[in-house]
Amino acid sequence: MAVTRGLISAVRLRHHRTQFLTQTVRHMGFFKTFTKELKSKNPFGALDLGTGGGIHRPPDEVDIVVVGGGIIGSSIAYFLKRKLPTGMRVLVVEKDPTYRQSACKVSLGGISQQFSLPENIQMSMYSAEFLRTIKDHLMVDDTDPPDVQFNSQGHLYLATPEGGQTLLDNCMIQAENGVQTEILTAMQLKSKFPWLNTDGIEVGSYGVEKEGWFDQMQLLKAFQRKAISLGVDYVNGEVSGFLLKHREVRRDDSYDTDLDYRIRAVKVSMPNSPEVIPVPCAIVVNATGCHAADLARLLQIGQGEGEMSIPLPIEPRKQYTYVINSPNGPGLECPMLIDPSGLKLRRDGLGGDYVCTMDPTQEDEPSTGKLRVDHDWFDSKIKPALVHRIPILKDYKMKAAWAGYVDHNTKDQSPIVSRHPSIPNFFFATGFGSDAVQQAPAVGRAMMELLTEGAFVSIDLSRFDFERFLDNEKISERKVV
Asked: What is the tens place of the pLDDT at every residue in 301-314?
């Protein structure tokens, strides 16, 4: 009953909270703090970058804490410091500086605009332009220019007769958003890609421009290096708790008085040490990827009443990436292939290597236990789809394999980019799954706008608000099968 009353109240107050969101930063005294402290800060002082691009201990206090230093968190940190280079201190807390478990590790590094949601299309279009002009954004003085080894190549989406209409409908939405794709029948596919087995395929869509793949780890390093050069502090540690400020507020005359929770400090546990350091801050951004729900639970999100009863629907999903070698494979003309079976494959270099993965179904999803590669999973899931769709790869040799986690949104598989409705200085940037790498530049810019302007400016991501879960709304991509 308490949950029902909370949901009803949430619906009534949607308009009020939307107005409240646009003023969130100002109500927190964020800009007042900047104005006051700016007078006492030396914007021309030398930056303490610590050792190896990070610092051993967190600062005494900061303005914004970004929890998670992966590609999403580092992009957010970069855009924040680019927007406000002086007068604002940004801390990135990352518990695994090796990024052994990150989504970056298992991503194929692809970028495509072939989505059904306009927001995803626009984010990837911006990211493509960002990568094209990456030197203008991420160049650091006295260092080599960033090189993410972008390979311009179209993405080829295949559809069965059951999924053909969905693919065509998606292409219409893409065209409305300025995306150029080539629609190919099964016969045209066979003519363009002679090595492709088109059995069971009715139609395909091939990206004409702004598509390809790149070295995602190099992009992560470039974001980090540039962010540090702008004054962002990186610390190896784990946010293990929060200090909260509780006060009663009345949101409007029709709403009962309740508690307004605001974070006043994060608790950072240092590695290989029992020490826990409180760091006062004005804003916290949850960019911890597959661990986002764990961080949210430290604030009792999903364990309270009303709005606090709704959990963050993010969980780790294990994904395997395999590298095979076949000198007789498709060669230079091989696109990024997305098969209805879930198989994804692209060429890697010029020596006959191909990188592949597969999105698991809910029924055959690998256990998220130990992070080790399951080669039986390749043999039973990927291999049959691989040799069926590309028969000339049947004599492949396994060259390498690794495993990692992506942040899977169990509700609608779409991103969550917003603040929490009951904790107005706690923000989410999570739920991107395997698209985190290609959407990172756009997400970093969007979060910067939300935090400094109080609203999205360049691309409207308001549909990715956490509040959609209060009303059990779903914003999902239309999958092609």
From this structure: 999 889 999 999 99
